[in-house]
Amino acid sequence: MSETVEPFFTVIAVVFEIIGAIAMVAGFVVAVVLAVRTLARKESARAAYLVLRNTLGAAILLGLEVLVAADLIRTITSKPSIEDALILGLIVVIRTVLSMSIQIEIEIEGVLPWRRALLTSGGQLLGEAVARDRAASTQTASADS
């Protein structure tokens, strides 16, 4: 790869890493807000904990997906070597195992994680958590009227 193009892709990889970190931090904030809202609706502490755990897991999953993309961009645009390929492989394996364990923890539909991974992403899971909270808030508001 040309020496003039490599710095550009390095910047792109860093941007992806920043986006992955922001996704996890923002997901943490969303998870805490949703858990507090669950408690405010006078649902059980267990329900709030499950909302927190599931939403945070989805945010971490989304962040891991973006970080894997950053690693791929960084590796394929740098000078190729066996060492870089092995490091990338190890990183992808570790993040895949983490993603699968998070999916197992937040799994509620009875679908095996590797099958569900083909159908959903961390962003979708996070969106579903927000949609469930919105629906619960609407039900609570209509019950109060």
Query: pLDDT under 50 segments (min length 5)?
Result: none
From the N-terminal CA to the C-terminal CA, the straight-line distance is: 65 Å
How much of the sequence lies in strands comes to: under 5%
- Main β-sheet, in a few words? none
Structural class: mainly alpha
Gyration radius from CA atoms, angstroms: 19 Å
Order of helices and strands: HHHHH
Overall residue-averaged pLDDT value: 80
Roughly how much helix do the residues carry, as a percent range? over 70%
How many DSSP-defined strands?
A: 0
Number of helices: 5
Task: Give the overall form.
Answer: elongated
Task: Jot down its keywords.
145 residues; mainly alpha; 85% helix
Secondary structure blueprint with pairings:
Elements: H1 6-40, H2 45-77, H3 82-106, H4 113-119, H5 122-144
Helix pairs in contact: 1-2, 1-5, 2-3, 2-5, 3-4
Question: Would you give an account of this structure?
Answer:
The chain is mainly alpha-helical and 145 residues long. The protein is 85% helix and 0% strand. It has 5 helices and no strands. It has helices at residues 6-40, 45-77, 82-106, 113-119, 122-144. The longest helix has 35 residues, at 6-40. The N and C termini lie far apart (65 Å).
